[in-house]
Amino acid sequence: MAAVTNKPSLIYGIACALIAFNFPPLAAAQSAAGTREVPARKIPVPDTVSPQMQKIIGAPLSPTWNVLPKTSEEWKAQVAKTAEAAVRGLPAMREALKVKLEPVTIDGVKAYMLTPAVIPAQNQNRLLVHVHGGCYVNGPGESGTSEATMIAGFGGFKVLSVDYRMPPDHPYPAALDDAMTVLKAAQKMVPAKNIGVIGSSAGGGLTLSMVLKAKMDKLPLPGAIAPGTPMSDLTGAGDSFNTNAMVDNVLVAYGASCDVRAAMYANGRDLKDPLLSPVYGDMSGFPPTILNTGTRDLLLSNTVRVHRKLRQAGVEAALYVHEGQAHGGWYRDYTAPEAKETFEEIAKFFDKHLGK
Amino acid sequence: MAAVTNKPSLIYGIACALIAFNFPPLAAAQSAAGTREVPARKIPVPDTVSPQMQKIIGAPLSPTWNVLPKTSEEWKAQVAKTAEAAVRGLPAMREALKVKLEPVTIDGVKAYMLTPAVIPAQNQNRLLVHVHGGCYVNGPGESGTSEATMIAGFGGFKVLSVDYRMPPDHPYPAALDDAMTVLKAAQKMVPAKNIGVIGSSAGGGLTLSMVLKAKMDKLPLPGAIAPGTPMSDLTGAGDSFNTNAMVDNVLVAYGASCDVRAAMYANGRDLKDPLLSPVYGDMSGFPPTILNTGTRDLLLSNTVRVHRKLRQAGVEAALYVHEGQAHGGWYRDYTAPEAKETFEEIAKFFDKHLGK
Fold it and tell me: Is the overall model pTM greater than 0.90, yes or no?
């Protein structure tokens, strides 16, 4: 117990941050029947994952999880700073995974084409469309291409990563519109069934929304999709918003920075609109779907709820839940065996379901 | 905050129980790098599940989770009392699901044959072998047939539920021996590939151990298996032993009653033996496997770790993680839509993979 005695400031610091922050809106529900009272705990890093993943799991809470800029300019400065740090690691990853990056413009929408040095025969006439994460506000330009690079390199696919417009300047539906523009353009490059769509977090939400929008607009659907830890429900429903609060070191808690960013995207629109919270959409006729999440993920529930909805609609859907991982652990370090395994698993799923 | 102020005894009661109980052996690891400090929390019942499931999720901690009888007689009395309560609900469930129960003896091993009123054509020449849960000590006689009744009724399968011998009188390998005796007998009734094996918790561990043992003994393997929330690792490894401690209202915490019962079963044998902790076994060549767990399950990690091992071995494996559910929520109330859905999902998986 020495550790406790020696650093009360840290423990109380976190507790105070939570109170100041108005930690999950549970006050009203506190006396409700069935409420579980969970004592304070110290959760060690598991030894059931790779050393690289232990480092990711053991990292401190994201320094910006509850930092909320007040003006557009402050938001842009924070986004730019995060993007700059992200971009720094990309050239080495592209070199290691032998992936080439080219900026392109597709019918007026900015994007990046990621091309692996070797494209297996079965993938020559296939194309992936990637939509990056970042809670609909982060990940501009090259900084949003990390996951796209991994699926290009580990999976052997050409990937078109959409550099969609974002708030504060461009709220909904700019991102979805841009993603649909690229999807439609992709459908002129290869047959629709040969296209896979992949994205995580906000990109997972967008991946699902793209299919809902394609259904609404009677467009051909992709052959398969891979939404990772999707922001499928912006309303705050989902049990892991509570069970994994302060356990997930990336998003940390519902109502924090990520949800504020999502609200900037929603721009006053009903959060239950399926194009914002796709778990409320009609998933009948969806293409085969592979979902990834982690046991510590704040969006664990909203990933498994999508899985259930898909299965209820009779859709072929595969779920992977990664040991110990918080939000999106598998795409944080390409050298982690968990990254390679996960992207290879996604690639196998695409290979099984995409047209050739 | 009124609720907190008004019932400190409950909160402190739990905290004290944990301290008295020597709550997870984490003291040594508390100051280790990466340890997450999670403040005390109140977790409401989610509204993203059915009313029946809300009741299961909101139930108080299992009254026996940290009750540890001291003698064989005391254990037997506790087991008998729990069994008596469980048996009381079974006739109504059998009537509702139109399932007939018959005690049988298979090569000297006690078992029950569960037969649904209607067996679909494709299941006429198929048979499931069921191994019940109860941490290797609970669930004797008819009391262990609940899950078997649900898969028989919802899935339309004949099910042979093994009433295997248990501690305190019969430690390892009695349970496994009995289960293997029934599996071998079943292989004389229908072709081996037409047999599915299903079981949850200790039964999930046994299901996996049975396949490992069949491989060791060069017996034919079942056509598919359905281990639910398997006790796949008795050593205490698995991150959700920490993250879901006190969140799961069934097992509650590692090292409590369930693990003491498992230790009685192990009887001094190395807990890392794959026949006790099958996550350490060689899963190459395993039959297609469907795994179920819940987001609040103390064994969430040890279910997803088995999923990963199976996929690494190239085995077809499907994972289902149920929103808000603690250990085995889907087989606690046959009237919950989550029960019907889950057993129908398992039945579909068996139908896809079993011989006819």
Answer: yes
